[in-house]
Amino acid sequence: MALVIDPRTGLAGDMFIGALIDLGVDVFSIIDTFSEIAEVNINRETEGVQVKVIPKFDELSFNEALDLLKRICDLLSMNEKFKQLAIRIVKILFEAEEWAHKEYKIGHPGVLHEASDIIVDASLSAYALQQLRASEIYCLYPVYYGGGVVHFSHGVFEVPAPATRYIISKYNIPAERGPVDTELLTPTGAAILAALQPLYLHRLDLRKNFEIISSGKGRGAKKLPIPNVLRVYLAKKRGEVFLEKVIELETNLDDVSPEVIGDLFSSIPEALDIQVVPVIGKKNRPAYLLRVWCYEEDEKEVVNEIFRLTGTLGIRRYVIERYVRPRWVKVKKIRVRGKEFIIRFKDSKPEHEDLLRISRETGLSVVELERMILSGDIEVVNE
Prior knowledge:
alpha+beta; 3 domains; five-stranded mixed sheet; 11 helices; 21 strands; globular
């Protein structure tokens, strides 16, 4: 069974632990292990499980934090694999903080800030994953980090926070701005992803490749216009063509500019597909027929977006069935002009979005990159 992480509306250490608890992992019997370093409260609510960590101290030297983390892992009877995972999370966070200190002159060198919180998040995350026993771990992308600014003890910074930005860049996390102007991806959340090194799968490909067996939600503390929730799934890989139901929404647009029509294709991220067909409408007026396909759980959000973006007065709804062939994504790493990039392949073809991202950072065109990759120069691409 695979664990699939969906950080669409938030990923922090406490949210990750809450989602795994909601998935069925029992941590209540070991909570007292943390009594010396923090008070850990777990609340099960309608929107998921919320974990609140009330720390008993803030800063430790890196070596002190590491020694304490190892002692906690031993008390939790963690095997070596998951003990090393917890250590890796803390090391990545410390590395990011050290970079932020040098780059922005914030914090103190050699010191792990919010050490109590971090030790609880790292050790409990690793413990819960050990109990879960997932054979593989996937993460849905884009990983949204939010927007706006973040306030903390060292000042005000643009989202993502400096440590988060460092982890995203160094560990090739496919992250994007949005969907709200607040911090959604914390440094600890980013460090958990970096340490896990999951296989990344586009969000719209989840049901094409997995049958969802169960799900869990970890609730964040922020009051947002969207649910501040991390979703995780236990899922089984699909191997054959299957039949699924999707919602088809359509509307006629006869008073919308071409610019608005063009923007629709990148403005409804929950859409499985979008079509715009030129038609002749009433009074012989040229018009457009807009069709949008989505899953039923995304329908309300997609409908609201169509109304908001187009100003249309009505939307027709159909429930349709379709046969789907699983399309597995292969992830490879390439080196272009001295920098490593993660690139995904569908049916042996490199993803255009990844090629475009690498093109912007290297100056090579999409055509040049695709030609170099398909010619077999996967691991090293010469300048």
